[in-house]
Amino acid sequence: MRLTTKGRYAVTAMLDLALHSDHGPVSLSDISTRQEISLSYLEQLFSKLRKQALVTSVRGPGGGYRLSRSHNEIFVAQIVDAVNESVDATGCKGRSDCQSGSTCLTHHLWCDLSDQIHDFLSQISLEQLVMRNDVRQVAERQNFEVQLGCSEKDKISAAMVD
Amino acid sequence: MRLTTKGRYAVTAMLDLALHSDHGPVSLSDISTRQEISLSYLEQLFSKLRKQALVTSVRGPGGGYRLSRSHNEIFVAQIVDAVNESVDATGCKGRSDCQSGSTCLTHHLWCDLSDQIHDFLSQISLEQLVMRNDVRQVAERQNFEVQLGCSEKDKISAAMVD
DNA sequence: TATTTACCCGACTATTTTAGTAGGTTATTA
DNA sequence: TAATAACCTACTAAAATAGTCGGGTAAATA
């Protein structure tokens, strides 16, 4: 099972895209600023997301990325799958050759777990995430911080220490 | 989320312990042979399992490890927790400081997922695993292989290629 | 058409984690 | 006291993660 910042970043970035999709394509540098993810790293992730047809790109000034389909047709599992190879909990990628060619003692348990995780993440769409209160609150805070800019933000942080 | 061979090995070893618990303590070298896990690595894992009071040890000849309580009172989640720090899917270990001190956009989603996984693995006891058909079959094969010994096993493998 | 914006791509790198080694010490039993 | 097996510390190779860097290429605007 592999679920690290790579998968988390991808979902976060896609959710950012969904949240800001009403004014044309969203540039990676915008996402980078709002979500504090390195631009080059985002480029790598979006290359994979594009190949899996989860986003479409628009080049040139004013360009960026757009979700390739409706918010309720994109699920978290698809995003994680696109950047990680899989959300597989087995060590043998389901091939049952975990113990020198044969099945290991706990193979079926990890298969069950993989299914469980996959089912859970397959049921959560971007639409659902956008509607959540906790997501809306964080998004609002992020928009506010970006408006302030870094220097102003630092001043406030410094002021709050006093 | 961290579920790698470390956690898988630990559960496999504990299940092996449960399967062979009827003739006194089980030595790590036995587990090492049956499950093909390096002895030194097993020692590291059992050090943690012992500290979490999941097993008790018996030193000296004929010694080994015993499960510290009944098979239906030890759950997979406890084993994985003992060797990994946690089955946490968040990047901030639940502290909500994922985005430079504040909560990141997808924090709550990963909390939900962590709960989901933990609940699932908390419901599976060693007892249940021991009863499963797939587990019994693999265990039987392993006992047979150990009886043959390595050299005999290689001969059979070689014969099967012809 | 020049310039800017932003996607696109491959190679490289520091850090961390995993998985495993090596070499010893302590306790128990035969 | 010899053998066995737990116990402990430190080290290490390999892999994965989380980036960086340096160049492209395509499209829009001025």
Automatic annotation (TrEMBL), chains A, B:
InterPro entries referenced in this protein's UniProt entry, alphabetically: TF_HTH_IscR (IPR010242), Tscrpt_reg_Rrf2 (IPR000944), WH-like_DNA-bd_sf (IPR036388), WH_DNA-bd_sf (IPR036390)
Q: Does the keyword DNA-binding apply?
A: yes
This entry's Gene Ontology molecular function terms read: DNA-binding transcription factor activity; double-stranded DNA binding
Which positions carry the signal peptide feature in this UniProt record? none
Q: Which domain of life is it from?
A: Bacteria
Question: Which keywords describe this protein according to UniProt?
Answer: DNA-binding
Tell me which PROSITE patterns the record gives: HTH_RRF2_2 (PS51197)
Q: What are its GO cellular component terms? A: cytosol
- Any Pfam family the entry gives: Rrf2
Q: What is the protein name stated in its UniProt record?
A: Fe-S cluster assembly transcriptional regulator IscR
